[in-house]
């Protein structure tokens, strides 16, 4: 499975508050997911500055449910 297909945003499109790892079945808060990205646990993801904050992001795949 491609890394960008691993985690989906469970919140509303602009919410980015809950995330689900499809491989492990683990649900995470945004903070938990961001910590794991920083630790290198999700190499296909990165943190970006947006609207004065920081959000997790991946490369766009065209699927509206995927992260940015």
Layout of strands and helices, then pairs:
Layout: E1 7-9, E2 18-21, E3 27-29, H1 30-38, E4 45-50, E5 53-58
Antiparallel strand pairs: 1-2, 2-3, 4-5
Which spans have pLDDT < 50 for at least 5 consecutive residues?
Answer: 62-68
Q: Which structural class should the secondary elements be placed in?
A: alpha+beta
The amount of beta strand, in percent, is 25-35%
The number of domains: 1
Radius of gyration: 11 Å
Largest sheet: 3 strands, antiparallel
Multimeric state: single chain
Order of H and E elements? EEEHEE
Structural overview:
This protein is α+β, with helices and mostly antiparallel strands. The protein has one domain. 13% of the residues lie in helices and 32% in strands. The chain has one helix and five strands. It has one helix spanning 30-38; strands spanning 7-9, 18-21, 27-29, 45-50, 53-58. The strands form two sheets. The protein has a three-stranded antiparallel beta sheet. Strands 4-5 form a two-stranded antiparallel ribbon. A hairpin with a 5-residue loop joins β2 (18-21) and β3. It is globular, with a radius of gyration of 11 Å. 13% of the residues are buried. Residues 62-68 have low confidence and may be disordered.
